[in-house]
Design brief:
Chain lengths: 341, 510, 337
């Protein structure tokens, strides 16, 4: 019970603080809250956009969570998802004529493989060379960004556009978009994300591999004595984390843009850390937290439009305050202690 | 004051619940100033809880603390240390890379113009050290110092903070016999300087030899408080466990079979850096099925390295040359998991860090290493039903208390943690058992239980390699004894073929 | 428990929220105020160049015409569409998208809201209710090239582009043609800051490129690089050489060192579009801004009067007249492909 209550309280606290800030900025908190709610859930289109933003966050949140269970901090989801999206788009740009059932599957597999490889590299470096994954994943984010720029601008450039993006893929690649969201690009990637969350839950809690991943994360020395190849498990966990982040490419490329657009991600990879944190690294929690952050992202965009004083930047402050209050776990134990004495 | 002195420490009707367990239920304890006062009890009897309350780490639900007759209420160790109460924890609270000096100053830095005044602090510490006869190398990083010295630093830390009442939690658990002797000499010196010492232990021998008075805990209550001079180990033991215990179990003679369980040949490990002592040189040994081979030695003479090399022969950090065979299979190039699947059970040296998932439910620690066992998983999917049922059964059979599978393993008492590990490892039907310090920091009842199980495993045909720093244990259990000194096997004895004294000399390298 | 509570109240709360929201919307002033929505791109309104210019144009229209103006800044590439849609749904009369990145979003939303009027800067969208505000950058760059070649003493001139995209190539091509017209032997050194949108905002890199060019004998550099151009200006100051600004009039930033600026009057394009739309004279299709209608020009004011000589200006104005008259055709990178 407390496990569920704490994150909820944290969100409420963060939101209250955020509303306080908007109030100082000269905006009625009630007004702001109303716009937030309406912006995120007011119409089928708004709700669709919320779901659209939530989808990649589910993937990146799961990515961070899986790595975390293995005792690793994956800050590289941004790079992994970039390469995942790039790989999917590359398949589509290179073989635009492939027919429907084959094409999206192939592109999807490419996205997963690219993300997996990009995640496995820091896993391997950590396990076999002892260099810390936090540094390596950050560095690989830059490499991924550079690689993506190069491919998108020199190898697969879209000649018909000023935008830095790849050639559009064939129609056979596009996956189903749901009609009832009033044109919001909610695609089959959403059920895929929810299904993946379920699979990851199965993996972590119902399989021997998941147990090994968690054991390594809990106590590497105990896992090692128990005969678990901790290096292998770490590489595997990072590879899985990378693959999960790579799946973002499916929603973005196959379900939305139909091509790789440089800089398409508003930091999904980094928001994934907050999502995992708020979701307590539990797949179900990640889905719920991703929905919340999707709603915030969509809702705060509307704040910019509907209010005089709340700008894009203040919206970020609002999101940041929620993340802060979620991560300030020490605060809770402190409050609990105060309550006792 | 009934007994005519003002107690240095008095706990009155102290109670504290931890979850559903009454960790302390109405504890009364009086400590005379300037004495060494033993606090004994099985693991989980509540002595640690009482001491944590006394030291301010925990708050009591009810009851009072009196220091020198004054009632004290504190919310943190800072309050306790301000009143002169300090504690040396079983697991030292030291920052490894820093020097002894810095570790002592940490949190109590003498400042001058906003800078740490090391010079003045050092002068004061050197005075303290010579006053109490506790010499320390001030500038070496802590992690390079022997455990005994680290403990000395912990004590100095308290003296530096002007503690008058010192609580020592299982201080000898990690010490060599020589270090143990030194420690008690030092404690006596402290006592003669007027310090009051609370010694938490479950080693009856130490209590009998070094304390003035003893309080016995059992199941959250005090079952007795006696003058040491007027009691016997047997009386204390029965107060502790509530029944008469046999301290030295009778081990029936072994009937070893000629099949080798463990065969190690020419194992060497180059230590890091020149002159490193932590290495193995050409270690060869053989353990047959149905016998217990004990490795005696002072900690740090290569025992850990030997175990690592046996369990992770593929890892280059663990072995540079030589071969390892289990049950006639050359496993030198094998993965650790495959080795364990041969039927190799391991009771690791450091149960908390190497044996358990402390923050996870007991059931998960039980599964650790068994997760690929066909009984518990198929096609990679865990069979929760089998697993939980087996765990429940094992908790009962191995008397792990409380038998709550959902409780974090870290909340079990030391003895129960160890029993949990034994329960798990014996699920393998071991043909080889490697037991390192199987009874370290474990209460009398659990020691007896674990020893019995080890002997039973032997009698069922397992080859047992026992690594222990406790001479009693080695002498009681081993059918053959190997002595390890500076990375070599320096002597071998058969059961009964060596005296404690002789063994001690060999361990010391002479 | 908490969950149950929320379940039981969330429906009423939702309904209440929507009711209140509806009430507020319907209570807004009923008289027909002309409403303009501006969707800036990710650079935001304070980028001191492109977006700022558009924002200023709209603000000027607001002051002069008394329209209702609301602007938003996109948070990500997928936000353009939902922001354009939000404006369309909220009874805005004219919705303007700034920057080519919004091309597809405008195309989509304009088709869904045929009654609304849209405009987009720097991209062409073929729809009856969309006006595409296109600039003939190559014409201006041609004049700038000519001015640079006339001013250069070394016969070597430089070009620092921001992001390497067709738009900037178009600048470069016009610049080169103008310079060659004056001095067929002129050497042109061209560099680009980068290939991502980061290239618009990397002054150190701009400076580094400019220093290298100056040290190689270049004495005039045209910076078509957004905020990275500020680095080029710094280099000009250190080496005491000339630089040329872009989009807005940047002559004042380093008086006497900024030879001139190639003006791209996004503000003018936005302002005139608002004005026409309010007067019910909105027309779709492509509206081109070039030298002829002063949508493109070069700057001359008190800050560069001392360095942009009479003779140079005279020759530049002659070329301008010839381009307008059609006797000179400036090569266009867009048409070359």
């Amino acid at each position: 019970m407390r496990k569920i209550l704490q994150p909820i309280l944290a969100v409420v606290l963060g939101l209250t603080l955020g509303l306080g800030v908007t109030w100082i900025a000269g905006e009625s908190p009630w007004h702001v809250l109303r716009i937030l709610g309406r912006g995120a859930f007011g119409s089928s289109y708004d709700f669709g956009m919320t779901l659209f933003y939530a989808t990649p966050l589910i993937f990146t949140g799961l990515s961070v969570a899986v790595a975390f269970h293995a005792g690793l901090f994956n800050i590289g989801a941004e790079g992994q998802l970039t390469l995942g999206a790039l790989a999917a788009a590359a398949v589509g740009a290179l073989w635009p004529g492939l027919p429907a059932p084959l094409a999206p599957v192939l592109a999807g597999v490419a996205a997963i493989v690219a993300g997996t490889c990009w995640g496995a590299i820091p896993g391997w470096l950590r396990a076999r060379r002892g260099s810390h994954e936090v540094i390596n994943t950050i560095m690989l984010n830059f490499v991924a960004a550079g690689l993506a720029s190069y491919v998108a601008l020199y190898l697969l450039k879209n000649p018909d556009s000023q935008n830095p993006e790849t050639r559009p893929m064939g129609a056979g690649y596009l996956i189903h978009q749901f009609g009832f969201f009033g044109g919001a690009p909610v695609s089959a990637a959403l059920p895929l994300a929810v299904g993946t969350a379920f699979l990851i839950w199965m993996l972590l809690w119902k399989t021997a591999l998941g147990f090994e991943i968690r054991a390594v994360g809990q106590s590497e020395s105990a896992a090692r004595v128990a005969g678990i190849d901790t290096g292998k498990i770490r590489i595997l966990a990072m590879a899985i984390a990378g693959g999960l982040a790579g799946l973002v490419g499916i929603g973005e490329v196959l379900g939305n843009a139909g091509k790789f657009r440089l800089g398409f991600s508003p930091d999904y990879g980094f928001l994934g850390i907050a999502v995992a944190l708020l979701g307590r690294n539990q797949p179900l929690g990640v889905v719920a937290a991703a929905l919340l952050f999707g709603a915030l992202h969509k809702g705060t965009a509307d704040l910019d439009m509907e209010t005089e004083h709340v700008t894009r930047e203040l919206s970020l402050v609002l999101q940041a305050l929620i993340i802060l209050s979620v991560s300030a776990e020490g605060l809770w134990s402190w409050m609990k202690k105060r309550g006792q004495t | 004051m009934a007994e005519g002195f003002t107690a240095a420490v008095e706990l009155r009707e102290l109670s504290r619940r931890c979850g559903n367990v009454a960790a302390n239920a109405g504890i009364n304890l009086r400590v005379e100033p300037g004495t060494i006062h033993g606090v004994i009890g099985e693991n989980g009897a509540g002595k640690s809880t009482a001491m944590k309350i006394l030291y301010g780490v925990m708050q009591p639900d009810s009851g009072d603390i009196f220091i020198d007759g004054k009632k004290c209420v504190w919310t943190s160790p800072t309050d306790a240390i301000a009143m002169g109460v300090g504690m040396v924890h079983q697991h030292f609270m030291l920052a490894g890379p820093y020097s002894a000096l810095d570790n002592i100053l940490l949190g109590a830095e003498p400042r001058r113009w906003g800078m740490i005044d090391r010079k003045r602090a050092r002068a004061r510490l050197e005075a303290l050290a010579s006053q109490y006869g506790l010499p320390v190398d001030w500038d070496r990083p802590i992690e390079e110092l022997p455990v005994g010295i680290q403990q000395r630093i912990e004590i100095l830390k308290l003296l530096y903070r002007e503690a008058r009442i010192l609580i020592l939690d299982e201080p000898t658990a990690v010490l060599t016999p020589q270090e143990t002797n030194d420690l008690f000499c030092n404690l006596k010196k402290l006592r003669s300087e007027g310090k009051t010492i609370l010694l938490i232990t479950h080693k009856l021998r130490e209590v009998m030899a070094f304390t003035d008075r003893v309080t016995v805990f059992r199941a959250g209550k005090v079952t007795g408080e006696v003058q040491t001079a007027q009691t016997t180990p047997q009386e204390l033991a029965s107060l502790m466990v509530g029944r008469k215990v046999v301290l030295n179990i009778n081990v029936s003679p072994a009937s070893p079979r000629p099949e080798p369980a463990i065969e190690i040949a020419g194992l060497s490990l180059a230590g890091e850096g020149a002159g490193s002592r932590h290495s193995l040189s050409n270690v060869s040994l053989r353990v047959n099925r149905g016998e217990i081979v004990g490795i005696a030695g002072v900690e740090g003479n290569g025992q850990s390295e030997l175990l690592q090399a046996m369990l992770h022969p593929r890892d280059a950090r663990c072995r540079t040359s030589g071969t390892v065979q289990f049950l006639n299979e050359d496993v030198t190039a094998w993965e650790a998991l495959k080795i364990r699947d041969l039927g190799v059970a391991v009771i690791p040296q450091d149960r908390q860090h190497e044996g358990l998932l402390l923050e996870r439910p007991v059931s998960e620690s039980f599964l650790l290493g068994l997760q690929r066992n066909p009984a518990f998983s198929r096609w990679g999917l865990l069979n929760s039903g089998n697993w939980q049922a087996a765990a429940t059964r094992a908790m009962k059979e191995y008397d792990v208390r409380p038998g709550d599978l959902t409780m974090p393993a870290g909340r079990l008492s030391g003895g129960n943690q160890q029993k949990l590990i034994v329960a798990r490892e014996f699920q393998r039907q071991p043909r080889v058992l490697i037991a390192a310090q199987p009874t370290r920091g474990v209460d009398v009842g659990a020691i007896e239980f674990i020893h019995e199980r080890i002997v039973r495993a032997r009698d069922e045909g397992a080859g047992v390699l026992l690594v222990s720093f406790e001479l009693d244990e080695i002498l009681a259990l081993s059918d053959r004894i190997l002595v390890m000194y500076e990375g070599r096997i320096v002597a071998e004895f058969n059961r009964g073929g060596v005296s404690e004294r002789e063994l001690g000399l060999k361990m010391a390298g002479s | 428990m908490q969950r149950f509570l929320w379940d039981s109240i969330k429906q009423p709360v939702r309904v209440a929220l929507l009711c209140v929201a509806g009430l507020v919307v319907s209570l807004q002033p009923a008289f027909a105020e002309f409403k303009v929505g501006l969707v800036l791109d990710r650079g935001g309104k304070d980028d001191k160049s492109f977006n700022s210019s558009a924002y200023e144009g709209a603000t000027e229209a607001k002051k002069k015409l008394g329209i209702f103006l609301k602007y938003v800044e996109a948070t990500d590439d997928n936000a353009y569409e939902s922001q354009l849609r939000a404006f369309a749904q909220r009874d805005f009369d004219l919705i303007i998208g700034i920057g080519f990145a919004q091309k597809e979003a405008i195309k989509k939303i304009a088709a869904q809201f045929p009654q609304k009027h849209f405009a987009i800067v720097d991209a062409q969208v073929d729809a009856p209710n969309v006006r595409s505000l296109m600039f003939e950058e190559h014409e201006g760059a041609y004049l700038i090239g000519a001015i640079a070649a006339m001013t250069s003493k070394t016969g070597k001139i430089g070009f620092v582009g921001g992001m390497d995209i067709p738009l900037i190539r178009r600048f470069a091509m016009g610049y080169e043609a103008g310079a060659k017209k004056i001095n067929p032997q002129v050497t042109i050194v061209a560099n680009y800051v980068g290939v991502t949108s980061e290239a618009w905002n990397n002054p150190p890199k701009g400076k580094e490129l400019a220093m290298t060019q100056y040290d190689g004998g270049v004495d005039v550099i045209f910076a078509a690089a957004g905020a990275s151009g500020l680095g080029v200006f710094d280099a000009a100051e250190e080496r005491k050489k000339f630089a040329i600004g872009v989009d807005a009039n940047q002559d004042w930033t380093k008086p006497g060192l900024i030879l001139t600026s190639m003006l791209k009057r996004v503000d003018e394009a936005v302002r005139s579009t608002i004005e026409e739309a309010q007067a019910a004279k909105f027309t779709g299709g492509v509206k081109r801004f070039g030298l002829a209608n002063k949508g493109i020009d070069y700057s001359f004011d008190q800050y560069n009067a001392s360095v942009l000589t009479e003779a140079v200006r005279k020759r530049a104005d002659e070329l301008k007249a010839e381009i307008i008259a059609g006797t000179i055709t400036v090569p266009d990178y867009y048409k070359k492909q």
